[in-house]
Design goal:
9 helices
Amino acid sequence: QLVKQTVQISDFMIFPSDWARKYIDYKGVNYCIIPNRSSEIFFNNRKDKKINSEDKIKIVTHHWSKNKKKGFDVYETLGRFIKENESRLEFTYIGRYPEDCSTEGIKIIDPQSDVSLSKMLADFDIYMTASLEEAGANHVLEALAAGLPVVYRKDGGSIQEYCSNYGIEFDHSLESLIQSIFSVDNSYDLYKKLAMSYNDNLDDSITMYLQVIREVLKWIN
């Protein structure tokens, strides 16, 4: 609602995804899409690794916010599944985790600096996010920059837009999530290659912002 109010007094709108524009039903023509980008540091530690059939599949996600729409219900469900089934899966959560959510089957790591996080992410096999309706999801962009295929929730908003070429979506069921994880595992060389090909960098977005600013200044002058 606040964004909708802002639109009424704005000369030009910049959306971090086309999903964000559609979500508020924006029909104007004075806008552009400038996707969010990861800090360059996340590209520095990526590893071109493989998974063997006997290896554990190391899954990771990370969030700063404790907002429920980050998908903690799904993380709890996956953790319990791992604990009860002793499967090939390992799940690590990096960041701030709600005190009222179960940590069964989940390894919790406190929030990290960008430097430390970039090194940690590169050691995992698959990135999983259960976030809902994110306008410009930075966490998945950091994962892609680190070279990780992404398993993402179909209602993730910008996440689907950012990750559709680099992973597989799942719906709200545990069965769909597990199926998507093992689908990536079964074709890991392909999905890893796709993730390693991701090279959208922050300089591209900066250039686009500068272009918009120059154009708006022309209108003013």
